[in-house]
């Protein structure tokens, strides 16, 4: 079970550890967290807020692209329309669930992945629950978690969703 997966699974685990260490122990991580928490203060210190935000978006997009390539080339070695079935929204919910902490993302991914596998196993076992309800269970769990987590916005970055205007 431990070493029966392909290399991308282990690279993903290493990526979580690297992002956590990078955000916590490097200057670039400190700058990124400063821009996320208070972009005006980061700008006052001389950091290029827009450049930092774009770099973070590019990194996140590259990771999402690698995930999509993995799904379509390795996990399911064919392309079908809608093959991700909204997994991107679950990934976004995972970040909120993890309170923007890299280590918690891993635990949340195991939780949501476990719910997805459970519904597939229940379908295969022929449980007397309609397939439609089993198929929507990961999304219902995601919505439930988001509703619960939305009550406490204190853990979100301070500049989340705020537009930055440089006043040079």
Describe this structure in words.
With 168 residues, the protein is mainly α. The chain folds into two domains: 1-84, no CATH class; 85-156, no CATH class. 70% of the residues lie in helices and 0% in strands. It contains seven helices and no strands. The chain has helices spanning 7-25, 27-37, 39-44, 49-75, 87-97, 102-125, 131-150. It is globular and about 60 Å long. It starts with 6 loop residues before the first helix and ends in an 18-residue tail after the last helix. The mean pLDDT is 84.
Please identify the structural class as seen in this structure: mainly alpha
Rounded to the nearest angstrom, the distance between the terminal CA atoms is: 56 Å
Mean pLDDT: 84
The residue ranges in which pLDDT falls below 50 over 5 or more consecutive positions are: none
Produce a short descriptive summary.
With 168 residues, the protein is mainly α. The protein has helices at residues 7-25, 27-37, 39-44, 49-75, 87-97, 102-125, 131-150. The model has no long low-confidence stretch (mean pLDDT 84).
